[in-house]
Amino acid sequence: MLEKTQMPLSSVPTGQKVRLANIHAGNGLKSRLAAMGMVPNTEMLVISNGSPGPFVVAVKGCRIALGRGMARKVMVRNTLRQESP
Amino acid sequence: MMQNIKIALAGNPNSGKTTIFNSLTGARQHVGNYPGVTVEKKQGTCRRNGVRIEVVDLPGTYSLTAYSVEELVARNFIINENPDVVVDILDSSNLERNLYLATQLMELNVPLVLGFNMSDVARQRGLVFDIPRLSQLLGVPIVPMVGNRGEGVDELLDAVLRVADAPAVAAPRPIHYGEEIEEELTRIEQELDAQPPQKCKCPRRWIALKLLENDEQIIDLCHSPRLLETVSLSREHLTAVFGDDPETIIAERRYGFISGACQEAVKSSTELRHDMSDKADAVLTHAILGLPIFIALMYLVFQLTFTLGEYPMRWLEAFFALAGESLTAWWPGQPGPLHSLVVDGIIGGVGGVIVFLPNILLLFLAIAFLEDTGYMARAAFIMDHIMHKIGLHGKSFIPMLIGFGCSVPAIMATRILENRRNRLTTIMVIPLVSCGARFPIYMMIIPAFFPDHRGLVLASVYFIGIVLAIVLARLLRLTLLRGETLPFVMELPLYRLPTIRGLLIHTWQRGWMYVRKAGTVILAISIVIWAATSYPKVDADTVRGLSADETRTVQLQHSVVGRIGKAMAPAMKPLGFDWRISTSLVGAFAAKEVFVSQMGIIYSVADAEEQGSHALRARLQADYTPLQGFCIMLFCLISMPCVATIAITRQETGSWRWAMLQLLGLTVLAYIITLAVYQIGRLFV
Question: Residue B659: which of B482, B525, B483, B474 has the closest Cα?
């Protein structure tokens, strides 16, 4: 039941590691995020869930700031669940 | 061996590409725009072993899709201009993400060299590269470099020359996308063989891949219905198999290829890394502290630009005044029309151009510092929340703020905006932010008509400008510059200490570009306006017996500007303006503050520019109502940006269309608003 464990990135607290599941967005944005290293199964660490402002994640060794709205469209799942097939 | 080659520099933003470009070309650079788009194009030359190498700095991009203008520009340059070698500069301390662009260049099958920049930082972070092995895995020569110390530059050029001589040295290894995708690629390639798209010299496999990725530009090149049918079937099939769209899967596979190569050839001994940067960010982007720190820094930038810039500005003004006077003293015979052309027209015009230079240089020094340290990305991040509501990017705040000083450097500062729509919107509304040159107009009118509410009226004029800028920006984003407001996604690069050389080159480029491009236009229009206020000359008989001030008044009325002002007067009457105000408004096109001196000439008042000109104020009070006074300020605020603004808009947008739209649009807006205020106001006053 992987689907059920998906959550929006915006709900992940600071300091937690998650894995990208998918992105609810148009092709333009998806490809931009992909170019910045965010593709499915990428590990991401939430550096700051700076409510109400933007959101900073570490992806492939870079710091990427996302707008709130964007963070809500990025669906992630817990890294731990990923280990079991 | 070839004596002349052309290379293109590609790379991610923040990869240190600009630093490498600077070390390659030094000051032998040329900055302009790519034709038809608001994307900056930098070119330069260097020499190595007797070969002249022309270097083109492509826009910094993360990939080569058709989704952004910058990426399209970079891609089209590589495809259409056929550079002999493409050099991809990578931040090697951040290799996997940076290699993504490299994989796309490899797929384009261009002669490629990779420059592994910041290899010192990578070493500090415990990364050890097996360069020969990695080079073999990718099939591309790799040169380690430290851009800000100039290390590896010669080696890079040697590699470039080797590849230019024998392109086979760089034979990029194709990425294997897995059976399902490869099958579909083969199917599409077969269709391409049957019906090759015209006007596209790219490798077949690359076209097939782009079609699978749903790339709009490439799809537009393909007219065969059978081909498009095949592509759409393939996409459906892959979507069904993978449960995600093909472009996502393809991107994932590229990263898979990269991480495979890195696992074999990159050793990481310690877990890095962002410690210092994260600590700085904890303060600089703090939810509460971030904004005040940003505002304090912006205050500093503003002060540096305009307060410090005022001294050299005064020197320059004094210098040009002196130049005019000494020329008058040396002039053989009676000063005639030629003397007036040289002193008032040319020296005055050149002075009008150069006088902006201190502001521009200082501003761009400050901006270069903010950008090179990495703070600019944070500033955007801090302001995004507010600016996004207006439909602009967080970074738009900086040019708009600069606009309070002067629209010219402000419009040049929009270069920090990557997105074309954001940039154009910001350029179009900047003149509404009340610049310093309008201040003398307010200072003439407010004490005359609103002596008891000076602060309030002044603040309200500035406030109206800001509100109008916001409304107009929103309006533009909903109409002419419609398009998805790109949600905020931005890399926060590591904080770095900028190099002095980099700062100076950056600053110099901007200053020179201003003088060369905008300067000539400003000068030409200034001379035209000078002629229009001086000709046709009145007869000597008409002015016989009049004082010098009165002569000037008669001359201005007789001139082209005076005639235009009089002809316009009936149209301006509903705004409460007579021929005097209309004439001054025409003259104010040269520069806003000229409005005051023109009013002074019309009223035969000497030294109207001095702020303590009570005589002029007394005349205004006698002839106009406070409502008319307010309408003058309102009209000057909104209408007709000055010549320099129009020239710089033309230069930065690359077309007269936007400049004319700005000129006419704002003037029409000013007319409508002033008309409404005057007509409604008259009912109450």
Answer: B525
Structure tokens at B614: 């009570």
Beta-ladder partners of B267: B128
Would you say residue B684 has pLDDT above 90?
A: no
Contact call for residues B92 and B20 (beta carbons, < 8 A): no
Q: What is the pLDDT, as a whole number, of residue B144?
A: 95
Tell me whether B489 touches chain A (CB under 8 Å): yes
State residue B596 phi and psi, 5-degree precision. -65, -45
Q: Which of A10, A27, A33, A75 to mutate to test the interface with B (most CBs of B within 10 A)?
A: A27
CB distance A64–B94 less than 8 Å? no
How far is it, in rounded angstroms, from Cα B132 to Cα B114?
Answer: 12
Nearest CA in chain B to A34: B251
* Contact (Cβ atoms closer than 8 angstroms) between residue B611 and residue B632: no
Q: HSE, CB side, 13 Å, CA atoms: give it for residue B482.
A: 3
pTM: 0.77
Phi, psi of A64 (to 5 degrees): -125, 130
Looking at CA atoms only, how far is residue A48 from chain B in angstroms?
9
Cβ of A58 within 8 Å of Cβ of B274? The answer is yes
C-alpha closest to that of B427 among B662, B647, B639: B662
Give Cβ neighbours of residue B52 (< 8 Å, ≥ 6 apart).
Answer: B3, B4, B5, B45
Residues whose CB is less than 8 angstroms from the CB of residue B380 and which lie 6 or more positions away in sequence, other chains included: B393, B394, B395, B488, B490
In angstroms, what separates the C-alpha of A80 from chain B's closest C-alpha? 20
Nearest CA in chain B to A61: B94
- The confidence score (pLDDT) of residue A84 equals 40
Q: List the one residue out of B531, B547, B562, B541 whose CA is nearest residue B606.
A: B547
The label of the residue with tokens 């007394």 reads: B618
* For A67, nearest residue in chain B (alpha carbons): B488
Per the CB < 8 Å rule, is B248 touching A70? no
Residues forming a β-bridge with B51:
B48
Residues B344-371 have pLDDT tens digits of 778 877 877 787 788 888 888 988 898 8
Q: Are A69 and B132 in contact (CB under 8 A)?
A: no
B65 at the A interface (CB within 8 A)? Answer: yes
Q: Which residue did the predictor score with more confidence, B616 or B211? A: B211
Cα B435 from chain centroid? 18
A-contacting residues of B 387-446, CB under 8 Å? 388
Give the C-alpha distances (Å, rounded to integers) separating B670 from B474, B667, B678.
18, 5, 12
pLDDT for the residue B66: 80
Rounded (to 5) percent helix, strand, coil in chain B? 65, 10, 25
Q: Residue B617 contacts by C-beta under 8 Å, 6 or more apart in sequence?
A: B444, B447, B448
> CA-based Rg of chain A, rounded to a whole angstrom?
12
- What's the rounded Cα separation, in Å, for the pair B543 and B440? 30
| Residue B179 exposed, middle or buried by CB count within 10 Å (0-12, 13-18, 19+) | exposed
Encoded tokens for B467: 């509100």
Give the number of other Cβ atoms within 10 Å of residue B329's Cβ. 7
B-chain CB neighbours of A73 within 8 Å are 487
Q: Are B556 and B583 in contact (CB under 8 A)?
A: yes
